[in-house]
User: Fold this.
Amino acid sequence: MDINKVYKDILHKISPQNIFKNEMMANHTSFKIGGPADIMVLPRTIDEIVSMIKYCKENKIKYYVIGNGSNLLVRHKGIRGVVIKIADNFNDVDINDTKVTAKAGVLLSRLSKLIMKESLEGFEFASGIPGTLGGAVAMNAGAYGGEMKNVVTGASVLDSHGNVIYLNNEELKFGYRKSIIQEKGYIVLDVNMEFKKGDFQKIKSITDDLTKRRTSKQPLHLPSAGSTFKRPENHYAAKLIEDAGLKGVRLGDAQVSDIHCGFVVNLGKATYEDIYNLIKLVQKVVRDKFDVMLETEVKIIGEE
Assistant:
């Protein structure tokens, strides 16, 4: 791929301040790890997203669509092709009484504050979940008894042929940390949600309580990808890891958090290899001791 040619081509589709060459992925992942992406674009509209994907397909250029990079581990050689980041510029929110429509790139932390401000209840669980709305819908993110499937009424998505289609709640086929979006490789564009009017002080109190519980029980002061492993059937990943004697274990600057064993954290200078090898170590020890294979929540991308 000729980076300069691609850059010139997409100048006709995206404004220059939203196109970057050799952009370090470490600046766009919550792990703070990752080498350069050949090209990164920050689209502002659905049309820009559609035109970028169409361009990449027509020219046989690899492309990756990411949100806020909160569940990504990017290799140090970086990413060949185009990274389309649906976050920074694609984050409008419209609230009309109890109905909320939001673009996929809005951060859940910001969205939850806007919803709380309108005294709408039912989204308190999402206030501390890292990442964007699009990613949360795709994986049916949840915490403290709440899940996206309980508040989403439907979503506009981009299918593999570049068509924008609308899926209602039932058609999204939500399951535990999954949806049809992952299964089909769809891209979430905007999301419709509905809530109930509630008491502002009660909503704020619940949100504050959940925030306090998170900050005291999770290593939020260190770079990580949130929960590293999915919850295995009939088990809890963090308990298995702690019972396996892995709490606080380090490889280089990667560590199994001594606050919450479900988190692998970057102590400051962790490399991709540190994080990857520690994840593999945890999986092996837990499998050997308890005959349970932990699946990762984290997605690994980039050139090997």
Q: What stands out?
A: The two ends are 17 Å apart (CA to CA).
